[in-house]
Hints:
Elements: E1 2-6, H1 10-22, E2 27-32, H2 37-46, H3 49-52, E3 57-62, E4 73-76, H4 92-109, E5 114-117, H5 122-132, E6 140-142, H6 145-160, E7 167-168, E8 171-173, E9 180-182, E10 188-189, E11 192-193, H7 200-211, H8 213-221, H9 227-241, E12 246-255, E13 261-272, E14 275-279, H10 286-303
Helix pairs in contact: 1-9, 4-5, 5-10, 6-7
The chain binds nicotinamide-adenine-dinucleotide.
Amino acid sequence: MKITVVGAGAVGASCAEYIALKNFASEVVLLDIKEGFAEGKAMDLMQTASLNGFDTRITGVTNDYSKTAGSDICVITSGIPRKPGMTREELIDINAKIVKEVSSRLVESSPETILIVVSNPMDTMVYLVHKTVNLPKTKIIGMGGALDSARFKYRLAEALEAPISDVDGMVIGQHSDTGMIPLTRMATRNGMPVSDFLDEERLLQVKEDTKVGGATLTRLLGTSAWYAPGAAVSVLVQAIACDQRKLIPCSVFLEGEYGMNDIAIGVPVILGRNGIEEIVEIELNEAEKEMMKQSAEAVRKVNQLLKL
Ligand SMILES: NC(=O)c1ccc[n+]([C@@H]2O[C@H](COP(=O)([O-])OP(=O)(O)OC[C@H]3O[C@@H](n4cnc5c(N)ncnc54)[C@H](O)[C@@H]3O)[C@@H](O)[C@H]2O)c1
């Protein structure tokens, strides 16, 4: 199992570290455009191997795609992160150029690969990759919902004063401050609806805190977060590499599912060896359908900024 991570910055390095810690991959190649940067990150990470007890071999390269050849999974984290006060959508001009070039070069070297897109604005970057490379839609997967759901569970556990392991919940829709949809109606505490424990006002607060989860961290850190994003990517990579058939919300190109076409947006999918094994269509109520419609409209507006 060979995995390439493009962008050895905060998210890329964190994701490589979590993949190595889970010890399921033989090789991780980190690639960055900054001279020597990926090599340095890889060496530093490899010096944790004997301390942390993993056998995954991590190597770093400066923009040399020949070293990524034959990758089973490639993760794209290259691009600029947002600064405090910025939206993810504002990153589009710079990141679209980077993601377009990087995805083409990755697929040239690994024509059979599965691509996981992380760079923001993520749903639009998934759409762009879909229009750029010749891969089936089942092999182009956007990471956003896994992170947003983790943030949702964190906020739910906080409100419930319960351990996070007792809580389950999912976020679908656009990976953005306004477009994401935490599905409070379906969230559970050990199988019981969270609405049995939290009143409407508290649930609304959980929802709002979840939506600005990334912006809150960007304000505190001065840049975008990396631990949870890196961990979320590693969960997607492991689900595919180990054929786990895990159900995770991911951004995927839709062709009629949820009544939508020609758009990539977050919906629940089953992830396994072939990438997206299945898009799961959950029964949304009228209010949720309306939120999904507005979320899709917001994605389409950002997509229109692409120079395809
Ligand atoms: N989808 C999500 O849930 C999620 C979560 C967090 C961050 N992000 C996004 O991930 C991206 C990376 O964030 P970060 O905090 O790691 O940023 P960062 O600045 O720490 O790292 C980005 C790296 O990409 C490299 N890079 C730039 N252009 C490149 C190219 N053409 N080829 C190879 N490498 C190139 C840079 O040199 C840098 O090392 C941002 O767009 C951010 O918004 C997405």
